[in-house]
Fold this protein.
Amino acid sequence: MSETIKIYRDLAGANDHWAGETRSLLSRHGLTLLNLIGAPGSGKTALLERTAARLQPRVRLGVLEGDIETTRDAERLAALRVPVSQLLTGGACHLEARLVHAALRDLPLENLDLVVVENVGNLVCPAEFDIGEAAKVAVLSVTEGEDKPLKYPLLFREAGAVVITKTDLLPYIPATLEACQAAVRQINSGAPIFPVSVVRGDGLDDWILWLEGHARRSTRHT
Amino acid sequence: MSETIKIYRDLAGANDHWAGETRSLLSRHGLTLLNLIGAPGSGKTALLERTAARLQPRVRLGVLEGDIETTRDAERLAALRVPVSQLLTGGACHLEARLVHAALRDLPLENLDLVVVENVGNLVCPAEFDIGEAAKVAVLSVTEGEDKPLKYPLLFREAGAVVITKTDLLPYIPATLEACQAAVRQINSGAPIFPVSVVRGDGLDDWILWLEGHARRSTRHT
């Protein structure tokens, strides 16, 4: 077996450095940052579209869209007049704090209360990287099946909130909402769980209230 | 920014070494190995359950189940009397060739024609690692939305076949089968696409024929 020796920087250390810089920046602006993480197609962007429409103008939302390729998600949010940037990882499976920090600085922070970062669609790697967020929010669609929190426990353990999406499809699939909630509870006893249907608008009130509470907590003290 | 210098082995080189060892082993036994990759909850295990029931006894199937935690998927296949092992990555987001090789050696290779490795649920990282497979098979559920091949192009570019699952849910969601197929074709002009509904049994015949063809191609020449 051939082996080569490479030198590389301590990426975890550098990541924590930039996460810290981001927390300072957020604190100066009285801003809350949330890190939205879920599988590809779990409905993260659709949730953000609906959330933006409900929050504004009381809570001024900014969005950073993380993807490997394409600017589709940022375009969807920009159409709603939300300040948004697209972060392209160029193949990498998660967002790193340095990229988030650079993109955050280019948002109109003075005019925002809350920034949501939609991470790359992936239940594994994004959970391992702090990007300076106040909380990670896990997104699980009922169509993925109720065992996902048990099979991908790190994200669900670390999550400050869990949004269970696509509840309108429950009549057509084997998974039940109760089983999804119970699986989340096996991994995380405290985080609020928000079952929602974005297409129907079901369950969004509690989610919006939770977001408003988070945004209010960091409001600028000037 | 603090920086430390670390030394690490060329993991890609080591991975290719073990992928090569696996190909030699497979060749000696006239065996075909397929690498099944898709998002969490895309229906990989359900597809394998139904596939096992359809292939046997003509094609003797073995399965390696890759997960971060739990042995749920292996238990589901073992219940169908399929030789199966569970590979737990302990947090890692993909299977590496060395682990697959070790597990493969413990399967009853003399009694098998085809081994399917179900990779960790993840559209990104598993596509980057050769595990000695004859082909990668991408699994995309219609509930994930039709833009996923464009947003996660590496897997769909490398795939030797694409299975589009959960077609029974098409009446209840915005995505159409035509849009899903067109997105795959933008990235991959040649791979066969198999739309299936595992719960209804729709579309499985072509997928089974394709698998049988692959298994036959490698049949032992003794």
The beta strands of chain B are 5-8, 32-38, 61-67, 84-88, 114-118, 135-141, 159-165, 193-195.
